[in-house]
């Protein structure tokens, strides 16, 4: 394992680095979310506080300058990381709540990238956890993240139906997709969800998603150029649409990050804008990512 202990980071600086394979824009996007969590962890009062994310970025020696949104001086640090850090926190809470009711469950983290969610959630040993991502990403994951007795990494394309055969089908499941939906074509997203809901006896789905307008912006702003080519999903404006596309799926929660208590920690402009948008579901969905929980 190459992960540096947090207290050694200052001594080693960024000197250590790993030569990365040629990632596609979709795969490269994992560094945007990982980098956001790393920057969050450096805040005096982080939203999420995932220091492992920072250790991984430092170990790899990844240049976050590829993502102008993380590098710009025009935004303060808290505004840069708010969406990624707070949505991860909400999704972690959803997973913890589910596991407290179903301690024998399976967790599937779809498109897990280099996220160490399992270490944040710290599930009981009775849980079996699967992190799924492309084989190239999983190979890197194995190098830079510590192992865990009840965790498995599956290197596969999520659109390939075969990988699911290796996952037990007789236990409830909590399925996470954090920062992933926008990279799946709508037809692939829908068939993946239908396969998953048919595979398990019951469970929950915890995802974030974007509206069609925000998806268009993601694809067309220069700030997102490094990953724009990977964006394949047109987005959706109403989370209830997913109920119609996937058999047996019911929306349980839509969390508006504009109403998150963490908004109080944003600088004045972000706070005011969030509070104004918070009055309307449509404005909330446009301003910040949707965080959604469904049951099946
Ligand atoms: C924005 S990153 C998010 C990573 C992680 N969930 C996080 O929060 O840091 C999107 C991830 O989804 C993965 N992904 C997208 N489409 C995929 C597919 N068809 N099969 C496997 N992984 C996929 C990418 O490789 C990438 O790691």
Q: What does this molecule look like?
A:
With 296 residues, the protein is of the alpha/beta class. Helices cover 42% and strands 14% of the residues. The chain contains 14 helices and seven strands. Strands 3-2-1-4-5-7-6 form a seven-stranded mixed sheet, sandwiched between helices. Strand 2 (128-133), helix 8 and strand 3 (151-155) form a beta-alpha-beta unit. The longest helix has 25 residues, at 77-101. The chain is globular and about 50 Å long. The structure holds S-adenosylmethionine.
- Point out poorly predicted stretches: 1-15
Give me the number of helical elements: 14
Percentage of residues in strands: 5-15%
Distance between the termini: 37 Å
What would the average pLDDT be, to the nearest integer?
A: 93
Give the total of beta strands: 7
Structural class: alpha/beta
- Overall shape: globular
Bound molecules: S-adenosylmethionine
Q: Can you write the helix and strand succession as a string?
A: HHHHHHEHEHEEHEHHHEHHE
Sheet with most strands: 7 strands, mixed
The percent range for helix content is: 40-55%
User: Over all CA atoms, what is the radius of gyration?
Assistant: 18 Å
Q: How are strands sequenced across the largest beta sheet?
A: 3-2-1-4-5-7-6
């Amino acid at each position: 394992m190459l992960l540096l202990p947090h207290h050694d980071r200052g001594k080693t600086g960024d000197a250590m680095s790993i030569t990365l394979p040629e990632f596609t824009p979709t795969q490269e996007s994992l560094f945007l979310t990982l980098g956001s969590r790393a920057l969050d962890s450096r805040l005096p009062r982080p939203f999420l506080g995932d220091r492992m994310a920072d250790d991984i970025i430092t170990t790899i020696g990844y240049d976050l300058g590829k993502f102008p949104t993380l590098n710009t001086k025009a935004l303060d640090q808290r505004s840069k990381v708010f969406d990624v850090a707070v949505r991860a926190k909400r999704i972690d809470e959803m997973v913890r709540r589910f596991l407290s009711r179903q301690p024998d469950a399976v967790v599937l983290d779809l498109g897990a990238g280099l996220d160490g969610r399992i270490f944040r959630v710290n599930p009981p040993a009775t849980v079996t956890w699967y992190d799924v991502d492309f084989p190239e990403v999983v190979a890197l994951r194995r190098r830079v993240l510590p192992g865990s007795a009840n965790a498995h990494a599956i290197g596969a394309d999520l659109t390939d139906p075969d990988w699911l055969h290796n996952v037990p089908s007789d236990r409830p499941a909590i399925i996470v997709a954090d920062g992933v939906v926008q990279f799946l074509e709508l037809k692939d997203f829908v068939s993946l969800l239908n396969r998953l809901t048919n595979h398990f006896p019951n469970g929950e789905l915890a995802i974030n998603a974007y509206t069609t307008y925000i998806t268009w912006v993601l694809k067309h702003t220069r700030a997102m150029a490094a990953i724009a080519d990977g964006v394949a999903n047109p987005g959706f404006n109403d989370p209830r649409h997913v109920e119609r596309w996937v058999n047996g799926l019911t929306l349980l929660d839509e969390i508006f990050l504009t109403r998150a208590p963490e908004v109080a920690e944003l600088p004045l402009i972000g706070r005011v804008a969030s509070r104004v948008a918070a009055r309307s579901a449509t404005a909330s969905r446009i301003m910040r990512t949707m965080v959604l929980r469904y049951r099946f």
